UniProtKB/TrEMBL annotation:
One of its GO terms (cellular component) is cytosol. It holds the Pfam family Glyco_hydro_1. This is 6-phospho-beta-glucosidase. The gene is ascB. GO terms for biological process: carbohydrate catabolic process. GO terms for molecular function: 6-phospho-beta-glucosidase activity. The active site is at 379 (nucleophile). Belongs to the glycosyl hydrolase 1 family. It comes from Gracilibacillus thailandensis. Keywords: Glycosidase, Hydrolase.
Length: 480
């Protein structure tokens, strides 16, 4: 237990985070179209699909299961779930809107009213319980039609489709949503372009030019969404969202220190620099030259990106990463779509993710020192195997310890001078894992009775962490 009491801001945004494709289900209901998550099979093999070339974006029910199709059925149970969030005392709930509920194929000119009405009901239910929604516009759920017929974010045309989608939801929900984010974990496209950029690199293809051209299109699209948000909802805040993992050098060897710096700049700062500072960072000039990357930048793109930067940085933090120039013979560490060498000073989760609360304090200081804009920890949590006791209770003390240590790190960062808006624990209710498609990798304060194979009643029950987090929020972080 912490021996120190932390002072969080009076208006600190405590809550939880989810994504539409991981909780909603109802994948064929309400005139919804197919998105990328709908065609990704469940199981640990999903991670290989995400990283290997040649995925065909087809559903094969004879060979695979597709847990995202039903997920935890938030589509029908949202009132019950939101009531539980309210019981915990959530100030905010981070959610995403499924692009294919609004534009089923992505390239229509008229939105789907059934999809718009569904989110009206969800947002109204949140406000009924005095919970502010934090909405991610695009969270790993690009319409499959845009993937197959346009090449995903390779295509400049997709910028136009995204702008239409963003403007549609900004206008529709302008009186219901104050906090927005553009692309979830935008930098993840460097490692798994399928989910982040909407395409799979082909085996014979050079990966660099299509990847960074796709990023450029997303930067333009993000700037257009920021511009629209500021025009349509002048008092709203719209942020970017990155996956952030501090990169440690394996040792004091200058070669390893430089290697860690290069890895950190590319992964942690490249996308954030463009969206927060409004321009490509200087270090990318050399990177583009060394990898023969020539971007097709249209007239006005750079001016648009410079003029319409984000208001805050939302980021996910699960782990740090340790890098060594020569990895041969070193034990590898598993991680959130990325891996480095094993850090001997850190323990790991059931899924091999290294646990590093101090890394969150480091991340917050690094980001605030670099950008001087408000920060928002919009994902942080522990994926673990929970055991339901005979009396139905779930004693997830390991999750409480993990979250407590990370909240302590946030408290320390606030004392360091960091401007931190809020904290939304990832997977506040059990959901389908994005990287592996598993239900057994549980994050929630709320247990959902569903197994990896699809069996289960979908009934909800409160874990021990539910009551702990309820008290954390009630005391504004004073009692951890």
């Amino acid at each position: 237990m912490p021996t120190k009491t932390y002072q969080f801001p009076e208006n600190f945004l405590w809550g939880g985070a989810t994504a539409a494709n991981q909780i909603e289900g109802g994948f064929h209901e309400g005139n919804k179209g197919l998105n990328i998550a709908d065609v990704l099979p469940g199981g640990k093999g999903r991670l290989n699909i995400l990283k290997e070339p040649g995925f065909n974006f087809e559903v094969n029910t004879e060979k695979y299961t597709y847990p995202n199709h039903e997920a935890i059925d938030f589509y029908h149970r949202y009132k019950e779930d939101i009531a539980l969030f309210a019981e915990m005392g959530f100030k905010v709930f981070r959610m995403s809107i499924a692009w294919t509920r609004i534009f089923p194929n992505g390239d229509e000119t008229v939105p789907n009213e059934e999809g718009l009405a569904f989110y009206d009901r969800v947002l109204d239910e949140l406000h009924k319980h005095n919970i502010e929604p934090v909405v991610t516009i695009s969270h790993y759920e690009m319409p499959v039609n845009l993937v197959k017929n346009y090449g995903g974010w390779r295509s400049r045309e997709v910028v136009t489709f995204f702008e239409r989608y963003a403007k549609t939801i900004l206008e529709r929900y302008q009186n219901k949503v104050k906090y927005w984010m553009t692309f979830n974990e935008i930098n993840s496209g460097l490692i798994m372009p399928i989910m982040g950029l909407g395409f799979s690199i082909q085996k014979e293809e050079d990966k660099y030019t299509p990847t960074f051209q796709a990023f450029h299109h997303q930067f333009v699209a993000s700037s257009l969404a920021v511009k629209a948000c500021h025009e349509i909802i002048p008092d709203a805040q719209i942020g970017c969202m990155i996956l952030y993992a501090p990169v440690y050098p394996y040792d004091a060897n200058p070669e390893n220190v430089m290697h860690a710096l290069e890895e950190e700049r590319l992964f942690n700062y490249y996308c954030a620099d463009v969206q927060v500072r409004g321009e490509y960072p200087a270090f990318m000039t050399r990177y583009f030259k060394e990898h023969n990357i020539e971007l097709d930048i249209k007239e006005g793109d750079l001016e648009l990106m410079k003029e319409h930067t984000v208001d805050y940085i939302g980021f996910s933090y699960y782990m740090s990463r340790t890098e060594k120039m020569q990895k041969a013979g070193e034990e590898q560490a598993d991680g959130n779509i990325m891996s480095g060498v094993r850090n001997p000073f850190l323990k790991a989760s059931d899924w091999g993710w290294e646990i590093d609360p101090t890394g969150l304090r480091i991340a917050l200081n690094q980001l605030y020192d670099r950008y001087r804009v408000p920060l928002f920890v919009v994902e942080n949590g522990l994926g673990a195997k929970d055991v339901v006791e005979e009396d139905g209770s779930i004693h997830d003390d390991y999750r409480i310890e993990y979250l407590r240590d990370h909240i302590v790190a946030m408290g320390e960062a606030i004392e360091d001078g960091v401007d931190l808006m809020g904290y939304t624990a990832w997977g506040c209710i059990d959901l389908v894992s994005a990287s592996t498609g598993e239900m057994s990798k549980r994050y929630g304060f709320i247990y959902v009775d569903k197994e990896d194979g699809g069996s289960g009643t979908l009934e909800r029950s409160k874990k021990k962490s539910f009551f702990w987090y309820q008290n954390v929020i009630n005391t504004n972080g004073k009692e951890l």
